[in-house]
Amino acid sequence: MDLSDLIARNADFTPDKAAIRFGSHTLTYAALHARIADTARALKSELGVGRGDRVAILAANHSDYLVLLYACARLGAMLVTLNWRLAVAEQLYILSDSGAKILVVDQEFSAVVAQLGKALPDIKVVGLDYTPDGAPSFDELLAGASGDGRNPHTDTSNPLLLVYTSGTTGRPKGAVLRQEALVWNALMSHHAHDMRADDHILTFLPMFHVGGLNIQTTPALQLGATVTIQPRFAPDTALQSIATNKPTLIVLVPAVMQALSQHPLWPVTDLTSLRAVATGSSLIPVPLIEAFNARGIPVIQIYGSTETGPTAVYTRVGGDLSRMTSTGLPGLFCDAKVVDDEAREVPHGTAGEVIVRGPNVLYEYWGNAAATAEALRDGWYHTGDIGTRDADGYFYIHDRKKNMIISGGENIYPAEVERVLHDHPSIAEAAVIGRPDPKWQEVPVAYIVCRKDMSVGVDDVKTFVGQHLARFKIPREIVFVDTLPRTALGKVQHFMLRDNLPPSS
Q1: Which burial class, exposed, middle or buried, applies to 61 when counting CB atoms under 10 A from its CB (0-12, 13-18, 19+)?
Q2: CA 276 to CA 294: how far, in whole Å?
Q3: What whole-number distance in Å separates Cα of residue 72 and Cα of residue 55?
Q4: CATH 3.30.300.30 occupies which residues in the chain?
Q5: Do 431 and 418 contact (CB within 8 A), yes or no?
Q6: Does the pLDDT at position 187 exceed 70?
Q7: Nearest to 168 by CA among 400, 415, 382
Q8: Which residue would you say has higher pLDDT here, 133 or 415?
């Protein structure tokens, strides 16, 4: 049995029920199962996708995003979810590092295709919503499908998702999640949301993130509920969709919560269909929770990461939500604790590192044994997050992964930006930190030491970074300094820069 069989079972029980609504199209569970089977046959017969092969997708949210996921499960292949906000150079690195055999891309992001010929000529391209030059569209691919669309020795123990996160060394790391991780993640999501088959999920967070994909979307489909997909988030269309489609559950990051609650349509939009909102990704400002509570909408919190699928610690619909600053209790099938530097559990109220153990945790970092060994120790995933646990077992996250910046729900590792800055011919040293921001939670700020007898302008620095990294990673401010604070071993002391951060301009 593989993960796609859960869709097949729902097709048996409720063949005519709406599984996915996307634009003007609706896929029933019977139609969804058929399209998954056709896609698996096409990938195998037309493109030679075997067990363990990597299939990448670069696209906005789309019904066939989910079709491709379950088709990969059926084949024992792995889906590589590409962040469309990344620069082309970053996307090419991930395609190369993952060894992707296939790239499914929508027309909006086809710029990467033009560079594949030189950089990665062996990758086969499929157009999701268009016909690329010399390559088939998704529907054209399916038209040639034949065979059974199965590979031998495929089950839920097979790796399924390869999701890249920004790496502390400046290069992204690919977190490998097995099919079974999505099964256990879904069961905990059902528990957290008190999710039922008659629920209606609205998804507009990007599905290249495990949050948009796995907090509600795949759990809903595996339960037999209905999912409405929006290509991407915009506050006016999101509010309109809530009023029109009447979803019962949505998941939001704080920046999205803020955008919705501050929109002029917020006070007049009918939100009565919502029985809960889930949120996570970063520390949740209490006023945002209160804004939704004031509209009669409970807010639950989901704590985790790409490496946990992401569900690890959560509060529950119908449970105790009085601790607004708490991320909740360990999930139904997940252990969590707070430990010191020697991995010894600390007393209640004492700060330490949060570590997590469970069947939802990543299998490995792709091709990176050292990073795997560092993160997974004695069966526990070390998050790098600093938190406490109260006497009732509730977790509180006080700081995020060392030096990591979370801007609008996107992770930015300073080392990644610093790596690019160090490549500039006029820059000798650079350090990047996060500055609090009322809209984005945090934005990156760069401290720069220029080479002797050289200088560079602020705009030139930003342009240079933008040539190599996604726009959201470009430092919002540039501060020129003579030296950077360092330890006796030469490590930059980022905390000292944060403590002396100049006021925002």
Answers
A1: buried
A2: 13
A3: 8
A4: 405-499
A5: yes
A6: yes
A7: 415
A8: 133
pLDDT, mean over the chain? 92
Interval 233-256 mean pLDDT? 95
CATH class of the domain defined by 179-400: alpha beta
Torsion from C-alpha of 487, 342, 402, 184, nearest 10 degrees = 160
Furthest-apart CA pair in the chain: how many Å? 73
DSSP-H helix ranges across 109-178: 111-119, 138-143
- Contacting residues for 488 by C-beta, under 8 A, at least 6 apart: none
The CATH class, in words, for 1-8+17-155 is alpha beta
Q: Give the whole-angstrom CA distance, residue 260 versus residue 224.
A: 28
DSSP state of 444: E
Least confident of 251-260, 369-378, 387-396, 460-469: 251-260
Q: What single letter denotes the amino acid at residue 290?
A: E
DSSP 259-293: HHHTSTTGGGS--TT-SEEEE-SS---HHHHHHHH
For 330-362, b/e burial (b = at least 16 CB within 10 A) is bbbbbebbbeeeeeeeeeeeeebbbbbbbbbbb
Rounded mean pLDDT of 349-366?
95
DSSP letter at 492 equals B
The proportion of the chain whose per-residue pLDDT surpasses 70, expressed as a percent, equals: 96
Residues of the chain with CATH 3.40.50.12780: 1-8+17-155, 179-400
For 381-411, the three-class secondary structure string (H helix, E strand, C coil) is: EEEEEEEEECCCCCEEEEECCCCCEEECCEE
Contacts of 72 (CB under 8 A, 6+ apart): 40, 43, 49, 55, 78, 79, 160
Other C-beta atoms within 10 Å of 71: how many?
Answer: 26
Fold of 405-499: GMP Synthetase; Chain A, domain 3 (3.30.300)
Residue 154 has pLDDT above 50, yes or no: yes
